[in-house]
UniProtKB/TrEMBL annotation:
Enzyme's top EC category: hydrolase
InterPro entries given in the database record: Rce1, Rce1/LyrA-like_dom
Catalysed reaction equations from the record: Hydrolyzes the peptide bond -P2-(S-farnesyl or geranylgeranyl)C-P1'-P2'-P3'-COOH where P1' and P2' are amino acids with aliphatic sidechains and P3' is any C-terminal residue
UniProt keyword Metal-binding present: no
An example Gene Ontology molecular-function term: endopeptidase activity
Location in or out of the cell: Endoplasmic reticulum membrane
EC number of the protein: 3.4.26.1
Entry keyword Cytoplasm: no
Provenance organism: Urochloa decumbens
Record-linked Pfam families: Rce1-like
Name recorded for this polypeptide: intramembrane prenyl-peptidase Rce1
Family: Belongs to the peptidase U48 family.
Length: 291
């Protein structure tokens, strides 16, 4: 395939497209296969509790993520960059523009959940009208108790820490640079890379989020953006499209929020907001060619 635009002669050479696809497929398979390594390969006894089971899976996910990152670094020859910060930036791990990378995608993603917010506020208002000031005290107490319980809850760590960070690292930060340097168009990558994710976790609806996460990663060049969106979506669950108790207000809010989301999708993810310079780019810097 042709070398992507923006690749300077001093940059690591672009890899064959077939090699990029094969590497992505191998990463997706290994991300799932390694979960069974403790019992199948290492012959360890089955875990005796959910905590032990998830701790083992956390370790396996960390191994798979590290292996994928090392494979990507080898294929793209990132060591030729010299500076360690530049090597990390290949995976979207950067210390610049952190506020924009976190806040803007979070606010943008929340628009899709306008119906969910209305539904929850409606429930809160109903409780307030019934129980008065006790609701505020009860909510505060429940929040404190939830935070205390969450620190020691393995499911919280799974849903809000381990899964978002490892999945975004493998399926976005590793795969997308490979596909970009493999000469694929950005639109193709956005729709292709989530297919590997769905193969790995075997959930069709994750493809939709994968499109959005890939879009965020390419446009911002920062791994934090899809991670923040991933954590927020895990916390909120599926958006509320309608709710009988709100008498259509939640439906209107969802529709209005969705319209605003698509209207702001490109302006809110403009590469200029997240990057100081858009020249001298390498093949993995998709945002340079998508302004």
């Amino acid at each position: 395939m042709a070398t992507p635009a923006g690749l300077s002669p001093a940059s690591p050479p672009a890899i064959p497209g077939a090699a990029a696809v094969a590497a992505c497929a191998a990463m997706a398979v290994s991300y799932v296969a390694v979960l069974y390594a403790p019992t199948v390969v290492l012959r360890l006894p089955p875990p005796t509790s959910l905590r032990a089971f998830l701790h083992r899976r956390f370790a396996c996910a960390a191994v798979a993520s590290t292996a994928s990152a090392l494979a990507t670094a080898a294929l793209l020859r990132v060591w030729s960059l010299g500076d360690f910060a530049d090597m990390l930036a290949v995976f979207g791990v950067r210390k610049d523009h952190l506020l924009q990378a976190v806040v803007i995608p979070l606010l943008l993603t929340s628009l899709v959940y306008a119906g969910s917010f209305v539904n929850r506020l409606w429930l809160l208002a109903s409780s307030w009208a019934r129980d008065g000031d006790e609701v505020g005290v009860s909510c505060a107490q429940r929040l404190v108790l939830w935070i205390q319980a969450a620190v020691d809850d393995v499911m919280v760590w799974r849903n809000y820490v381990v899964a978002p960070f490892t999945e975004e690292l493998v399926f976005r930060a590793c795969m997308i640079p490979l596909l970009l340097c493999g000469g694929f168009k950005m639109s193709t990558i956005i729709f292709l890379s989530p297919v590997f994710f769905s193969l790995g976790v075997q959930l069709g609806y994750t493809v939709i989020f994968g499109w959005y996460a890939a879009f965020l990663f390419i446009r911002t060049g920062n791994l934090l953006s899809p991670i923040v969106a991933h954590v927020f979506c895990n916390m909120m669950g599926l958006p509320v499209f309608s709710s009988p108790r709100t008498k259509g207000v939640a439906s209107v809010a969802f529709l209005a929020g969705s319209i605003c989301f698509f209207w702001l999708l490109f302006p809110a993810t403009s590469p200029e907001l997240y990057n100081t310079r858009l020249d001298r780019c390498r093949c993995w810097h998709g945002f340079c060619n998508w302004k």
